[in-house]
Amino acid sequence: MSKTIAILTSGGDSPGMNAAIRAAAMVALAKGHRVLGIRHGYRGLLDGAIAPISADEVNSILREGGTILHSARCKRFHEVAARDHARAFLTEQGVDGLIVIGGNGSLTGLTLLSDPHEAKDWPVRCIGIPASIDNDIALTGLAIGVDTAMNTIVEACDRIADTASAHGRTFIIEVMGRDCGYLAMTSAIASGANMVLFPEAVRTEEELVNSVVNTILTVRERHRENQKVVAIKAEGVPTPTDRLKSLVDERLCEATGEDHEDIETRITVLGHVVRGGRPSAFDRLLGSRFGNVAVRAVLDGEHRKMISWLPPMDLPPGVGVRASADPYCYLVDLPAVLAATKDLLEGQSPLARWRATAFDDLEDVFLL
Ligand code: F6P
Predict the structure, then answer these.
(1) Dihedral sign, CA of 71, 72, 76, 77?
(2) Ligand 1 within 6 A of 275 CB?
(3) For ligand 1, atom 2, which residue shows the shortest CA distance?
(4) What residues are paired with 93 via a beta bridge?
(5) Is 270 in the pocket of ligand 1 (CB under 6 A)?
(6) Which residue has its alpha carbon closest to ligand 1 atom 12?
(7) Which of 132, 174, 338, 347 is most buried when burial is the number of CB atoms within 10 A of its CB?
(8) How many of the other CB atoms lie within 10 Å of CB of 319?
(9) d(CA 210, CA 206)
(10) Count of CB atoms within 10 A of residue 219's CB?
(11) Spatial contact of 325 and 147, defined as CB atoms under 8 Å apart
């Protein structure tokens, strides 16, 4: 029986949202279902901004940043009356399943919308897709947009490093991430920055200033030829970046006296630049996979679930141990790696078997 699936994107947009919309729509359409797009997130849901989505409309959006469905932050959705209105509206539109693509706030909205105490026996299946450059959503390794944002930051840092190097200057680069330091930390590693400041470290203002000043003085002492310093600062660090710069300048003045004039600091706030742009290949893939799985979850009758991205294997006991320094890493026995690789290459492992048939059920989708 044909079903109706509605999709909305909400909260801060992230590159790859369009890939998720496209995949969800194409998979649903290929299976003969009706797809509705809700414009402007939960605000549009309350205002009745809904229209059918066709394959033609979504076919070429894969490479576009932002979201074709537009997004919004909606305070009204915090009220029970607004959510009652939203549920009644979706029922009226004949919606069987709702897919919400967004971050923490958006998934909270979906959880409230589908709360059994509030929604009673409302039959609409609700599925969330994690999408936020901040990577602050638990129980998924990654959310849509993180990879692109990280690449954007790294590219910007590389450019800044060139001019910092030419002038022997210090740059404090502020990156988005709300209260989460993930983007700052990962892009600091990937760009080879000299230091990173992030909220999780919970430092006093005094400690922050000290650490920047110490880094600058150490680099200047050690690298006479290249006095460049790049410090990445997460926006969630409570001291504003311009204030941090002034405090660092003051402290440098005290520490170095007249020599302070040789030490120049600059700040760059990357801001919303980090959120825009064409999605990376990985975000296109992640969005597409999430969209595909989300639609199938709705059709299978799943409800109140988030699609999550985790490494695809549970290691059998005795093969390896999780690295104590990094919970995303396992220390795996080398012979076990070689044996598993042989199985993979010869099509003998579950992963190999999954890969061999992964596209079988997608032929119609690709033909649309
Ligand atoms: O959650 C995504 C995000 O880009 C955060 O990194 C940032 O703090 C916030 O949204 C900015 O929100 P707005 O675009 O509403 O100013």
Answers:
(1) positive
(2) yes
(3) 12
(4) none
(5) no
(6) 12
(7) 132
(8) 16
(9) 6
(10) 18
(11) no
- Amino acid code (one letter) for 242: D
Dump pLDDT digits (tens) for 38-72. Answer: 999 999 999 999 999 999 999 999 999 999 999 99
Place of tokens 């997608």: 362
Question: What's the Rg (C-alpha) of the chain?
Answer: 24
Statement: residue 250 has pLDDT above 90: yes
Catalytic site positions: 134
Instruction: Let me know: does 21 contact 363? Beta carbons within 8 Å.
Output: no
C-beta of residue 58 within 8 angstroms of C-beta of residue 5:
no
Angle between helices 205-222 and 241-256 (to 10 degrees): 50
pLDDT band at 234 (very low <50, low <70, confident <90, very high): very high
Q: 122 in the Ramachandran plot: left (φ > 0), alpha (ψ -120 to 50) or beta?
A: beta
Side by side, the strands of the sheet bearing 229-234 are: 195-197, 229-234, 170-175, 265-269
CATH for 4-145+279-346, options being 3.40.50.12780, 3.30.70.3290, 3.40.50.450, 3.40.50.720: 3.40.50.450
Distance CA 342, CA 358 (A): 20
Second CATH level (architecture) for the domain 149-275: 3-Layer(aba) Sandwich (3.40)
The mean of the pLDDT values for the chain is 93
Query: Where along the chain do the CATH 3.40.50.450 domains lie?
Result: 4-145+279-346
pLDDT per position as a tens digit, 266-278:
999 999 999 999 9
**pLDDT, position 216:** 94
Q: What is the pLDDT of residue 208?
A: 95
User: From residue 324, how far is each of 328, 330, 335 by CA, in Å?
Assistant: 10, 9, 21
Its sign, for the CA torsion 163, 165, 167, 170, is positive
For the CA of 134, the closest atom of ligand 1 is: 6
